[in-house]
Amino acid sequence: MIVLALDTATSACSAALWRDGAILARRLAPMARGQSEALLPMVAAVMAEAGLGFGGLDLLAVTVGPGTFTGIRIGLAAARGLALASGLPLAGITTPEAVAAAIPAAERAGRTVVVAIESKREDLWAQAFTADLAPLGPPAAMALAAAAALAPGDVVVAGDAADRVLALRPDALAATAPGWPDAAGVAELAARHWAAGTALPPDPLYLRPADVTLAGAAPR
Amino acid sequence: MRILGIETSCDETAAAVVTGEGEILADVVLSQLAEHRPFGGVVPEIAARAHLEHVDRLVAEAMSRAGLGYAQLDAVAATGGPGLIGGVMVGVATGKAIALAAGKPFLAINHLEGHALTARLTHKLAFPYLLLLASGGHCQLLAVLGVGEYRRLGSTIDDAAGEAFDKVAKMLDLGYPGGPAVEKAATSGDPARFALPRPMKGKPNCDFSFSGLKNAVRLLIAALPQPVTRQDAADVAAGFQAAVAESVADRTRRALAEFRTRWPDGTGLVVAGGVAANGALRQALIAEATAAGLPFIAPPLKLCTDNAAMIAWAGVERFRLGLTDGLDFAPRPRWPLDPKAAPLKGAGVKA
Questions:
Q1: Could you tell me if A215 lies within 8 Å of chain B, comparing CB atoms?
Q2: What domains are defined for chain A?
């Protein structure tokens, strides 16, 4: 199965082509902004590098959040546009699952996994998983203290807000994995979920209602 | 030639397919009025969420109505700005992705250029012409000389005209959007009962200002017996509408004179934007165009307010000239049509 995956949901931008466990091509760059410019050229680059057309793909995949609202929308709009014009199916993957799956098994062994994603507010997005990556609850918005108290005992922490949690949990292990999803990992998760029928629909997971600020009300 | 157009820069999600001959094969618009009405204005985050929720479905519907597959398109055009950036990013990402998957060129369209070129879609109008663009987000007078070639003759220095209508409607509790609500109330009102200022009237430039008028209306309403009676509200609405019409007509008269002098071969006065639907304003503008000896051209309202047919058509015009854009195009919250025009103090995005 050949999967094209995208991620712009947090503080990075990536695109990858994956076939049955092998990464055919990948582009990834950490970036807090600029995904709108970077994402589609990355997709074009991995397709060109692998010498594939969209007709040669089996599945599209994208992270649906939680993360930055703008980033979630860029990834989803691009993925849904690709799906529309190519007729390919599209699988949604949550950002905490993608981040957790990138933690080496040796770091997860015997520990609860806590993923903390930056929300650019006082609270953050967090989710806990067992050592073998079964979710212990849904991803949720929570105060930093609640995220730090999400799992007792031995924990390994990952995500782009991991440092904030680790400051309150000096006992915890900091994961060596990057704090953002990698499209290659997203592709692998998507292939597995697609086969199992457990992929999410490509709909945004904002976890917070829209802020009501009127257009033009800001000082200029 | 067949171009798909996508529009997501404010509170309408829209998709359309237009041919090189100007035939509109499909034109679908989804208004977000209901989502924003409780707030009396457009909420950017709500707008961005709604665009993502609906844009792919609307594109699919437009393609289906046009009876086309993506391989039959020549290019994909999307509004690249100016506007509410969260929504623009959704449309741009969607457009780029469709272009990439279909193997077609991508065109990033200036939303204002979409409005500016609509008269060429609807009336086959030749360059140059004078454009009054008056909407909830913009108020400016532009000489339209060619594709990508504009001279700004005047612009608002504070609020857009439509914004003033919205705010006055809110003060009078007339509902949202304000333009149609104020116009409806004004039909039973006396425009001469209250003396309201005619902003900028007689000033030597072609600029607009609606902030002072809005404040005058606020003070006037505060001085009325409370709660404001239906008749008082109607008279205020009529007075406000007459003041806007007179001010815009005065500014347009000056712009027409300048336009006639600098471009004697000018072909008409074109209006675009939702405010162009206002009957009182339209009558005043017809009188100004007639006095200047130019045809008055108003595209049908559906193509005057935000829509994707104008984006697809601007795409046709730009594609013909080879003006395609890369997949690395960066959405632009501000994107003046005449970048060389001197910045106006406080005008911001509306200039």
A1: yes
A2: 2-96+181-196 (3.30.420.40), 104-174 (3.30.420)
**Cα–Cα distance, B128 to A6 (Å, whole number):** 45
A114/A117 Cα distance (integer angstroms): 10
- Round to whole Å and give the CA distance between B297 and B314: 18
Minimal Cα–Cα distance from B101 to chain A, Å? 6
Could you give the CA distance from residue A55 to residue A49 in angstroms, rounded to a whole number?
16
Q: Is the Cβ of A45 closer than 8 Å to some Cβ of chain B?
A: no
Domain B2-116+303-320 and domain B127-301, same fold? Reply is yes
pLDDT tens digits, one per residue of B215-229: 999 999 999 999 999
What does pTM read for this prediction? 0.94
Which residue from B337, B327, B274, B281 is spatially nearest to B142, judged by alpha carbons? B337
Which residues partner with A23 through β-bridges?
A18
Q: How many angstroms separate the CA atoms of B133 and B156, rounded?
A: 11
The dotted CATH code for B2-116+303-320 is 3.30.420.40
Instruction: Find the closest chain A residue to B95 by CA distance.
Output: A81
Residue A73 is nearest to which of B89, B101, B328, comparing CB atoms? B89
ipTM (interface pTM): 0.96
Other residues' Cβ atoms within 10 Å of the Cβ of residue B348:
16
Which residues does chain B have within 8 Å of residue A27's beta carbon, measured at their own beta carbons? none
**Facing residue for A73 by CB, picked from B90, B98, B327:** B90
Q: B99-140 pLDDT, tens per residue?
A: 999 999 999 999 999 999 999 999 999 999 999 999 888 899
Pick from A83, A210, A216: CB nearest B49 = A210
A211 touches chain B (CB under 8 A): yes
Quote the minimal CA–CA distance from A200 to chain B in Å. 15
Are A81 and B102 an interchain contact pair (Cβ–Cβ within 8 Å)?
A: no
Q: Which residues pair with B30 in a beta bridge?
A: B13
To the nearest whole angstrom, how far is the Cα of B260 from the nearest Cα of chain A? 34
Q: Where are the domains of chain B?
A: 2-116+303-320, 127-301
Taking a C-beta distance cutoff of 8 angstroms, is the pair B89, A36 a contact? Answer: yes
Residues A168-195 pLDDT 10s: 999 999 999 989 999 999 999 999 999 9
> What is d(CA B112, CA B216) in angstroms, rounded to the nearest whole number?
30
- Give the closest of A34, A77, A86 to B93, CB-based: A77
**Domain B127-301 belongs in CATH node 3.30.420.40:** yes
The residue among A56, A208, A148 whose CA lies nearest residue B101 is A56
pLDDT band at B33; cut points 50, 70, 90: confident
CA atoms within 13 A on the CB side of A90: 21
What is the model's pLDDT at position B176? Answer: 82
